[in-house]
Hints:
By secondary structure, the protein is mainly alpha-helical. Among the domains are: 9-81, Arc Repressor Mutant, subunit A; 94-184, Glutaredoxin (3-Layer(aba) Sandwich), CATH 3.40.30.10; 300-370. The chain is built from 16 helices and five strands. Helix 7 (162-173) links the parallel strand 4 (155-158) and strand 5. Helix 2 (42-53) packs antiparallel against helix 3.
Amino acid sequence: MSVRRLAEDQFQPAAFAFNDENAAWADKTIQKYPAGRQQSAVIPLLMRAQEQDGWVTRAAIEKVANMLDMAYIRVLEVATFYTQFQLGPVGTRAHIQVCGTTPCMLRGSEGLMSVCKSKIHHHPFERNAEGTLSWEEVECLGACVNAPMVMIGKDTYEDLTPERLADIIDTFDAGNGASITPGPQIDRHFSSPEGGPTSLTDEEPKKKVSAKKVVTEAATATVDAAPVPPSEAARAKSTDAETNAALKTPVTAPKAAAKNAKAVEEQPGVAAPVPATAKPSLTDKNRPAGIEKPATPDDLKLISGVGPKIEGTLHELGIFTFAQVAGWKKAEREWVDGYLNFKGRIDRDDWVKQAKALAKGGEAEYIRVFGKKPR
Ligand code: FES
C-alpha cells in the first residue's frame, strides 16, 4: 500500500472552482441531506471535483470543506483514506489500479504490475512519457472471486492475464477504452463458474411445498423406515447368537417405506423428481452439419458465451466457422443448445446474430452492430 499524501506544491493549482454544471449539481446534492448533515456530501463532491480536474487538488479539498462547513483536516482525512481519490496528476487516458491483495497476488497480480512497469513507468504514480497513462497498487477492490483484476476509472477488469492487461492498456492509450467490456475477460458470466453454470441449471421452478409439510413428511418417513426391533417372542425363541445378530442387523420395513414414498409422491404440491434432460443424439436429423477442420478455423471464442471448452466441443461437432453458426435454423440451435445443456443460452446470447456480424466483417462489423468489441 502506497503512502497517500497530497501532491508536491509544484503541481498544486492556486484555486479550484466547480464549473457551472458541476456547481449546480453540487448544490442539488448538498440539499439531499437534512439540515446539519450536509457533511455527508463530502465524498460525492470530492469525486465530482476529481472528475472535473482529473485528480483531487489541495484547493479542491479546501473548496469542498468550505462548501460543507467542515474543517480542512476532515476533508483531507477522507481524500487521503480512499484510494478512489487521486491526490496527484494521473494519466489523462487511464490510471490503472492493480489490486495486490492476497487473492489477486496468488492469482498473478505481480505479473500485472510488471506489465504496468514495462508499458507505463517503473514507479507507481509516475506517468508515461506522453502523460496519458499511470498506475498504482491498491488493496482489495472487492472482485476477489475473479482475481486478478484492475480498476480503471469506475470499471473493473477481471480474470486478467498479463497479455490481456497489455491489450487493455494499449486500447485505453489509443483512446478506445470505451470499446472494452468491463468485468470478466474470460468465458465467465459475472462471477459464475468459468464456461457456464455448473449447478442450479434447472429452468423449471419446483413446486413450492410448505416447510411444515416437509418437516411432517420427513418425520413420517423416518418413523416408517426406522429399524424394527425383534419381538419379545422372537427374542425368547432365538439363541443368544441369533438374538445378537438380530440386534446388530436392523430390519427395515420396506413395505411401509414404499407406501409412504408413494403417498408423498401423490401429495398435491410436492415436487416430483425432475428427470435429467437427455442429451440429443448425435445422429439426430437436427444436428447441424459439420465440416472438416479448415486450415484457419474462425476464433469461435469471439462469440459471447463461447469459451475454450465450448469451442472444443463445437470443434468435435465439426463446427469451425462463424458462417456455420450464422446459418443455424431454430431446430439446429435447439439441438446444439440441448447438446451443450445450455437451457436456451444460445438464443439468449444471440449466437446467430453475433456470428453473422463476425462472418460479415470480423471485429469491425461486430463493433458496428453491437457497439462493443466481441467478448
Ligand atoms: S483481493 Fe483483489 S479484488 Fe479482492
